[in-house]
Every structure is written in C-alpha cells, then in structure tokens.
Amino acid sequence: MYEALKRSYSLLPKKTFHHKIQDVNNNSLQDTNFLNPYIQQYLAYISVERNLSSHTYDAYEADINKYVQHLISRGVTNVHDITEEDVESFADYLEYMAPSSIARSIISIRNMHKFFYEENISHYDPARNVKPPKTPERLPKALSVDEIQRLLDTTNGDDIISMRDKALLEIMYGTGARVSEAVNITIDDIDLHESSIRLFGKGKKERVLPLGSYAKTALETYLVRSRPALSAKGKGNSYVFLNKRGNQLSRQSVWEIIKTRSKKAEIEKDISPHSLRHSFATHLLHGGADIRVVQEMLGHTSVTTTQIYTYVTVDTLREVYALAHPRALHQ
C-alpha cells in the first residue's frame, strides 16, 4: 500500500509537521519532526483513500499536530515509545474543549495509530483502548414555517443582493443543502427545464434533487436579473452564487447573510445556515414524508443520522394522543 500512497501523495500539496513548540522547561524551541514521515503517509492515505473534504482534512491535520506537540512535551521522540498513557494524557489535556471536539480529536488519533499498526510502522496500537467521550445528543434547531416565511420575506427587493439572497435561501431551505454544497453549486448543476439541481455532498457524493416552484422562480430571477451584474464585477466563473466582487460566495458570507436576515425578520432564535437544513428535514417529516426519502434528500449515508429529526416534543405527543386515541377525550 505504501508505494501506491507515495505515488498518490506526489500529486498532493506538500504539507509538513515541522512545527515549533515552546519547551516548558528551558523555553527553547524544539522541532517536532520525529513523526513527520509517518504522518505524511497517513495524510496521504486519508486524502486519497477516504476522499475527505478539505475542511475535514484540515481538522484532522490540526488534531494530529496538537497531539504531536503534546507528545514532545512529555519527552516522547520515537513512534515506538508512544504508550496508552500518552494517549490518555492527551485526552485529559483536551478537557477544556467541547465534548464533540474532544471526540473528534480522539477519533483522529485512534485512526492514525490504527494506520501505523496496520502498516507495521509501530509495534502495537496504543490508542486502541482509549475511548472518545460520549457527546450529548442535541436536537436540531428548526425554524417554524412562519419564521421561515418571515426570513424569506426580508429578501423581497429588486436590488441585485436581495435577489441573490432570496435565491440562496430558497435553495437552501427548498433542498436541505449544506452551506458547503450551496456555495459550490455551478451553472452546470442546474436544470431549470427538469426543475432539478445537483449537489455534491461529503466525499463528493452526488445527489439530484427537485426544485420547488418558489426556489425555481427565485433562481430564475437571480440568474437573469442579478447574477450577470455581479459576474461583470469579477473575472468570470461558473459558480451560481457570487459576492459583490463577482467571486464565489464564501461559507462565511452565507453565515453573515443569514444572521443579518434573521435579525431583520426579528427571529429570536440563534440560527445558522444549518438551521435551514434542519427546517427542511423537520417540515418534510411533519408533512408525512417517508424517513428513507428524507435520508436520500439530505445525503445521509445511514438512516440513523436522519432519525434525530423524528424526535417530537411532549406537547406534540399530547396533541396527537388527544386527537387520535379513543380514550383520551374527557367525558
């Protein structure tokens, strides 16, 4: 496997872990390169074999870099000297972080050590018994239909930014697109004749979704009346959603758009781009859609991920019980 990875890695941007850390004893700087060759092999593996997004790749890289710095601070300078106690010490060190961030970091390190062991880089796997913390299950924050309408109403305007924002929000709510998927939509991904749109999800997994009438109308208006004016300000590209300079709209810009629009709509909830995706799924299920259909539309690999949207409040349970059960009504 290693020879194949070396050939694949030669095509990737070169990254290095020759980072410097502060020695806690003598304030000198040490070079943390003792794991570098093996880490490069692992990064090549996850880049080529697992087809990770750049965002996930960067998160893994940051986790590993932090781990290497921790090992150096404990005096570890050889891959064969890493012990389970070193890994557990790193897990304890991460206590200042949120449980979900700790879990991701530990999983990153576990996967790396598993790779080292399977590729005979190390004699054993010191992380195999170190478990990530259980993260509390958080229910998605969905907006009500009324809140969605108020949010969309803030984009009712004839200026090019309002038309862009309306198309963007209608697409995100109408398809359940992740923010990373929305900003990467290109002209070739849209088929107005068939009223469909193509999205590329995690691992570049492709899915084609229907465009509802509201989203289609907003998109047509934007493409005809707004996007040409925005595009003229830049060097020209195929991305659908552009910023004021004619370049691809960034994920951070979408956050700002939604924050600004929600404030204007007087929505008190703290919402994000993902809130539109949550609302899309929740409203579909409340409307009677099959969970397997919603799973496909969200691009979830497992239906277990989608099932979080099936949780209902106690008030909803009481309401359904009162209306549906013959012994629930008062005499």
Task: Describe the 3D structure.
The chain has 331 residues and is mainly alpha-helical. The protein folds into two domains: 2-118, DNA polymerase, domain 1, CATH 1.10.150; 145-274, Orthogonal Bundle (hpI Integrase, Chain A), CATH 1.10.443. Helix content is 52%, strand content 5%. It contains 14 helices and five strands. The strands form two sheets. It has a three-stranded antiparallel beta sheet with strand order 3-4-5, with no helix packed on it. Strands 1-2 form a two-stranded antiparallel ribbon. A hairpin with a 5-residue loop joins strand 4 (196-200) and strand 5. The longest helix is centred in the N-terminal third of the chain and has 20 residues, at 54-73. The radius of gyration is 24 Å and the shape is globular.
Describe the structure concisely.
With 331 residues, the protein is mainly alpha-helical. The chain contains 14 helices and five strands. The protein folds into two domains: 2-118, Orthogonal Bundle (DNA polymerase, domain 1), CATH 1.10.150; 145-274, hpI Integrase, Chain A (Orthogonal Bundle).
Characteristic terms for this protein:
single chain, 331 residues, mainly alpha, DNA polymerase, domain 1, 2 domains, three-stranded antiparallel sheet, 52% helix, globular, disordered N terminus
